């Protein structure tokens, strides 16, 4: 488990520009956000996690699809995930991806840990160490490394 911290990231699949965004993020080894992100701005939101902290990527309607570690690069402007104004990317490393047949669902996490995923958030810290450990262990057992 990351000694620094763990983060939840919503890949924004529920909005039209986000259709298929999780795949583009995985392919580009990044997380991406766009627009004002509830008044904070995508670049500011993506700056908060420290290098080495773990992020879990959530796909709406499915569950956790990938996990990775934040690298030490600042967010940079790029529009290859959403193709929207104000899009920023934050690179990640050590990316693990679950096969679509074995996605870690909201219900599975809740039943095993009692933790309710903050699915209405874009990026937020996970304060439940037991849930973070459960999710990381699940990925280590069921995921493959992204190429």
Question: Could you explain how this protein is built, in words?
Answer:
24% of the residues lie in helices and 27% in strands. It is an alpha+beta fold. Strands 1, 2, 3, 4, 5, 6, 7 and 8 form an eight-stranded mixed beta sheet that branches. α3 packs across α4. The protein is globular, with a radius of gyration of 14 Å. The two termini are 22 Å apart. The mean pLDDT is 91.
What is the fold's blueprint, element by element?
Layout lengths: L5 E5 L10 H8 L1 E4 L8 H6 L6 E6 L3 E8 L5 E2 L10 E10 L8 H8 L9 E3 L3 H14 L1 E2 L2
Parallel strand pairs: 1-3
Antiparallel strand pairs: 1-7, 2-6, 3-4, 4-6, 5-6, 6-8
Helix pairs in contact: 3-4
Short description:
It is built from 4 helices and 8 strands.
The description of the largest β-sheet is: 8 strands, mixed
Shape: globular
Strand content: 25-35%
C-alpha Rg, in Å?
Answer: 14 Å
For the secondary structure, the number of strands is 8
Summing up helix and strand content along with how strands pair, one would put the structural category as alpha+beta
Distance between the termini: 22 Å
Question: Runs with pLDDT <50, length 5+?
Answer: none
- Please tell me the overall pLDDT: 91
If helices are DSSP runs of H or I spanning 4 or more residues, what is the number of helices? 4
The level of helicity is 10-25%
Order of helices and strands: EHEHEEEEHEHE
